[in-house]
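Issue 218. Parser rejects a valid record. Input:
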Amino acid sequence: MQILIKGGHLIDPANKKNGQFDLLISKGKIEAVEPEGKIKDIPGADIIDAKGAIVTPGFCDMHVHFREPGHEYKETIETGSQSAAAGGFTTVAVMPNTSPVNDNRSVTEFILSQAKETSNINILPIGAITKGLRGETLSDMGELKEAGCIGYSDDGRPVSNSEIMRRALEYSKMFDLPCIQHSEVLELTQGGSMNEGIVSTELGLKGMPTEAEDIMVHRDICLLPKTGGRLHVAHISSGGSVDLVRQAKAKGLAVTCEVAPHHFTLTHDACRGYDTNAKMSPPLRTQSDLDMIKEGMRDGTIDIIATDHAPHDRVDKQVEFSKACFGIVGLETALPLTLKMVDEKVISLERAIDMLTFQPNQLFKLDKGSLGIGKAADITLFDEKMEYTIDPSQFRSRSKNSPYKGWKVRGKVLRTLVNGKTVFKCN
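Output the parser choked on:
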């Protein structure tokens, strides 16, 4: 079956296309991309009318938590994939803080097996840097790569031991896979619930200072010249850390970073009223940090947008703020929140699409994020003008923990295709 997507505004940063193009899909791959009207109707082909829609490569999220194995009551690979597809994501990388931890071949193979059976998108596993995420002994990083892992992380916890992190970065060079660091000095954040500042003081909650992130980012950057490793800073939240990454890049060091939509749209003021849906790690910071993050997006210091999709059941959130779990669901709100940065002229629409498609795949050296001839037909169609109110009860995710309830936004995913097959279609 051939599929012809007609009349859409195609934005494909990988191939520097931005305009009215028609797109022909055959056997799950891109067969032709031509200016509108150049591809004649093909008998028997399925026609998708994309008039008024933006057509892009499928979005890629390199930082999600699908909770399987071990915490399926929060999310499964199946429900997480449905949430991703509804958000326009065709490829996601799942973090290893499952139970058991993805620190060995058997867990990696289980995740890939479950993905093959239950997922409608591309699932890529991230392996643990250390066994059990305990930060004491390196995992078998070579085995994890052979099993299918595309990077290493102890996300949820930092690798605090500098010698362990040094060795991990050396292996990252050997295997040409990035080490993804959750940058946090635990001695400074122990018992903390939110950003340390005026709001935490007013609420009577122990704070988590930005220095806890900055110190760890600085340490890891200092390890790069000798190790030659690849460092990726996850969910950057501190303006100081953005500046550290900027300086490291200027020196030619192999460091990249990502930002989550909640860190460029919310400040610690969202925690007022003890709203546990605004509790996340790293925490929401100050307006000054948010402004510096936007500048990092504007000047290219921040490479990609990743949601840090972290689903939790209501029992994990409907407790005292200090006892609630950290995290927010993010896959189904990523597009409209990113478009807010376009509205604010922080980034262009093309740059926004680039950060959601081509750049993640460049960073992790994947064969995705492009609508080039012969590439897999992983495609997202969205209406950038459609306005609506965010309603977490309608999320496809098994969990609904979002601080964006009631937000009026624009930008709705209309259809998501993986290998030419529609995996989500807006009602």
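Fixed in the parser; the record now loads. The chain has two domains: 2-55+377-425, 58-363.
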